[in-house]
Target: Cytochrome c oxidase accessory protein CcoG
Amino acid sequence: ASLAMRNPLRVDVIRDRGVLGREVAGGMIENVYRLQIINTSDSPLRLRLSADGVPGLAVRAGQGESDVVEVEAAANKLVPMVIRAPAGVEPGAHPITLRARAHDQENRPVETDEAASFYVPE
Model:
């Protein structure tokens, strides 16, 4: 593979060991992850984070209510990611996919998927 085709984006998922999953307002289930996002390109990336694998997942990144994260050129960033599922999901560990999507300066898609687990307490 040529160097130009190498994905400039890498995401490592770090599970928050303190709390696997907890119930929050409205019976929703919340899981917290930390993402180590690595941008090896020479331009900043504006990433939209998402998750699927359990119906109705909602994602928040960083300290705000947004699912968008900016990572400077040739930098890495540790970002807290909160994922909530609606009430009624069966207890146990559910496989999910965490996605990071962006476009580079030439408007080419830059993306990566990481496997994780979403834990619903008994």
User: Anything to note?
Assistant: The chain has a mean pLDDT of 92. Residues 4 and 41 are 10 Å apart (CA to CA).
